[in-house]
Design brief:
Elements lengths: L4 E5 L5 E5 L13 E3 L2 E3 L6 E2 L5 E3 L17 E2 L1 E4 L2 E4 L14 H4 L3 E10 L3 H9 L4 H4 L4 H7 L7 E6 L3 E7 L3 H4 L4 E6 L3 E8 L4 E13 L2 E11 L48 H11 L17 H18 L19 H10 L6 H4 L2
Antiparallel strand pairs: 1-2, 2-7, 3-4, 4-5, 5-6, 8-9, 10-16, 11-12, 12-13, 13-14, 14-15, 15-16
Bound molecules: FE2/S2 (inorganic) cluster and fe (ii) ion.
Length: 364
């Protein structure tokens, strides 16, 4: 949101999200020291707690009340499912943090991670919801597969509005996905994406929930939580450790290698023996190369892009609601409603894995 912030844990373990620059003379609190109930600026030792109160100003005269008049920017934080969520809106309108099923379920294992993207959050979110791209961008053995496309059915996308956003089912005609059933995905307001993936080769269903967080208009952090329910024997899926690898970009040509790789992009889907994450590189390449902030006036949307139109309309409606001082879609204020967000949808999603054509209509 174009604000420079520092996130820290105080000596009681509470997360605090504060304005990056010290209220005194603007030194970065990134270089601060965590101690004595807060974070201490290295320049003159001012100490701030997680709520932005200034607790100490060591150089000010004895008995000074100056520190009580300092209001350092701070945002409330809550931890859930391995992520720290912050609320950056007006305090009086603060809603509940949705207790998404994959963040709170205890009958499985979970893993959280994030990575940076050099373009606007919304075009990357649209790239996720644009599931039709999967068998093209992410298709291996392209030079053979493309000859089969003409004889196959077209990908079909069914979607409907849900109380949190959009529920979507995609059925693919070609490639490895078709043997795994439909792809079940959701857009949830305002900047989230969810997909369920049956990872038969490891014997677990994986649920992924992602947030495309705008750092500014042209930079995004994608946070993701993966959740795998225990299998029938009660065993937990062991999430692989992430290998360090350089983030894809023009500086490394997104790891394109047409000599050895048979995809449209030349980026490997899988790159055994390396830490390269093919899907991530492919997605970043297509959504960054649209431009730092895509010019939608120049698009030509086709029949399979209707879900994007529905999503954009939903966002515009939400902006209209906020302008009228109403809650936009997917604001939860009721603790009972918030006990478990998504349960019904996921039940249908898991059933939907074996009911390809009815998953959308069964859900609600
Ligand atoms: S600049 Fe931070 S204490 Fe002076
Ligand atoms: Fe993708």
């Amino acid at each position: 949101m174009s604000e420079d912030l520092v996130l820290f844990r105080d000596d009681r373990g509470r997360p605090g999200l504060l304005g990056l620059h010290c209220s005194h003379r603007l030194t970065s609190l990134y270089y601060g020291r965590v101690e004595d109930g807060g974070i201490r600026c290295p320049f003159h030792g001012w100490l701030y707690d997680v709520a932005g109160h200034c607790l100490e100003q060591p150089a000010e005269p004895e008995g000074s009340t100056f520190r009580e008049r300092i209001r350092h920017p701070s945002y409330p934080c809550e931890e859930l499912g391995g992520l720290i969520f912050a609320y950056l809106g007006p305090p009086v309108q603060r809603p509940l943090l949705p207790r998404y099923e994959f963040l709170v379920r205890e009958d499985g294992t979970r893993k959280a991670d994030f990575y940076p993207i050099n373009s606007n959050y919304l075009q990357n979110l649209e790239g996720a919801l644009d599931t039709v791209h999967f068998p093209y961008l992410h298709m291996d053995n392209w030079s053979e597969a493309k000859h089969k496309l003409a004889t196959m059915s077209k990908p079909t996308v069914a979607f409907e509005e849900a109380d949190y956003g959009i529920w979507q089912t995609t059925i693919y005609p070609i490639g490895s996905r078709s043997s795994r059933g439909p792809l079940l995905t959701s857009f949830f307001m305002p900047a989230g994406f969810y997909r369920v993936q049956e990872a038969r080769w490891v014997g677990f269903t994986h649920h992924y929930q992602s947030w495309y967080v705008p750092q500014d208009d042209e930079h995004t952090l994608r946070f993701q939580v993966g959740f795998a329910p225990f299998d029938a024997e009660g065993r937990g899926y062991v999430w692989p450790e992430d290998d360090e690898f350089p983030y894809p970009g023009p500086q490394n040509d997104y790891f394109r290698d047409y000599e050895h790789v048979d995809t449209i992009s030349g980026i490997p889907v899988n790159a055994p023996g390396t830490a390269i994450k093919g899907f991530l590189c492919q997605d970043s390449m297509v959504n960054e190369s649209q431009g730092p902030l895509v010019n939608r006036a120049l698009e030509h949307l086709g029949a399979t892009d209707t879900v994007l139109m529905a999503m954009r309309k939903m966002m515009l409606d939400a902006i209209g609601e906020v302008a009228q001082h109403h809650d936009p879609k997917h604001i939860i204020r009721d603790t009972v409603q918030n006990e478990n967000v998504f349960v019904r949808e996921v039940g249908a999603a898991e059933a939907g894995l074996t009911r390809a054509t009815t998953a959308g209509s069964q859900r609600r």
